[in-house]
Amino acid sequence: MEEKIILISEKDEPIGAMGKLEAHEKGLLHRAFSIFVQNAKGEFLLQKRAKTKYHSGGLWTNTCCGHPRDGEETLTAAHRRLGEEMGFDCPLEESFVFHYTTLLDHNLKENEIDHVFVGTFDGEIIANPEEADNYSWMTREAIEQELATHPEKYTYWFKVAMEKAKAGGFF
User: How many domains does the chain have?
Assistant: First the structure.
């Protein structure tokens, strides 16, 4: 059974639930989250999305992202997905929130209010191959260089979140 995600108003208030794929086919506004994990050296953990993902497969992005399920708190969902995708958990703190829309591959559309969480972790990573084909620790400078020279290798939301984080000094 497909998980139902939270449809929201422009004020991020829940107004219903819908299957994840259908919400992306219709481009309906829904709640999402992105997680940025750093190590003690200040490097960011990026993942390369599995090629088999329903959208944006094979692109590099932040540590983890996802959608809270209907009735699930966003922070709880963030911890759940971090374990499911990267095989670890760590303390997370909400840093900022932003709204974005974009057209995706497979005739899908993102229309999300994205809650950005940050955390620190230095332990073992056990990436789920159904979620991530690879992962890498990168400095902010290396990420900015990569985004400037090869933006096509990265997810849309990752690029927007990095711009907003830099402009706002969020992390």
Answer: 1
Is 65 one of the annotated active-site residues of the chain? yes
The per-residue pLDDT for range 8-56, each reduced to its tens digit, is: 999 999 999 999 999 999 999 999 999 999 999 999 999 999 999 989 9
What is the rounded average pLDDT for all residues in the chain?
Answer: 96
Point out the catalytic residue in the list 64, 65, 85, 110.
65
Annotated catalytic residue 73: no
Domain hosting 88: range is 4-168
**DSSP β-bridge partners for residue 103:** 109
Residue pair 15/9 in contact by the 8 Å Cβ criterion: yes
Q: Check which CATH number belongs to the domain holding 135 and give it.
A: 3.90.79.10
**One of 64, 85, 110, 112 is an active-site residue; which one?**
112
DSSP state of 94: E
How many Å separate Cα 81 from the centre of its chain?
10
Residue 6 CB burial class (10 angstroms; 0-12, 13-18, ≥19): buried
92 falls in which pLDDT band (50, 70, 90)?
very high
Mean pLDDT on 148-165: 96
